[in-house]
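lol forgot to send this yesterday, sorry. struct tokens for the thing we talked abt
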């Protein structure tokens, strides 16, 4: 348990620091890049994915914070879930809390990756990618467990 918790905390802190450093660069150091398919440009997202729930602007950070607290409470009472999924959970929480930190720091989530090759796609950031990868990992681990359980029957 202690080793997994240590790995989880280190991974969490590393991902939050990387994400916040990149966002700092776009906000204050004016990072940017333009190409035919992808642009790295500063944008503020006042909603959630695809700017949904933008009308909740000021309240959204507190709603999201409450959800993160609920996840911590759930994991406290279900330690076996944490022990099984500690890597993707750390990634999920790092991405989520880093985006929430943006809301408190900048008033919105700092986005900067804009895909526009063949079709326009939503603008996103590193934390969003971390969250997506964590979900894929959880689904893959669940599928793998399902296959193993099916073999035993």
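and heres what i got for the seq, position by position
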């Amino acid at each position: 348990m202690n080793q997994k918790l240590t790995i989880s905390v280190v991974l969490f802190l590393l991902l939050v620091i990387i994400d916040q450093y990149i966002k700092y660069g776009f906000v204050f150091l004016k990072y940017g890049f333009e190409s035919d398919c992808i642009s790295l440009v500063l944008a503020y997202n006042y909603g959630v994915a695809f700017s949904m729930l933008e009308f909740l602007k000021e309240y959204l950070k507190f709603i999201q914070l409450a959800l993160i607290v609920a996840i911590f409470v759930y994991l406290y009472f279900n330690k076996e879930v944490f022990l099984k999924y500690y890597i993707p959970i750390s990634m999920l929480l790092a991405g989520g809390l880093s985006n929430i930190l943006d809301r408190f720091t900048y008033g919105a989530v700092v986005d900067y990756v804009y895909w526009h090759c063949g079709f326009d796609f939503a603008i996103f950031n590193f934390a969003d990618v971390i969250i997506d990868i964590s979900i894929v990992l959880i689904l893959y681990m669940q599928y793998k467990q399902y296959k193993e359980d099916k073999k035993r029957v």
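The chain has one domain: 2-146. anyway ping me if u want another try
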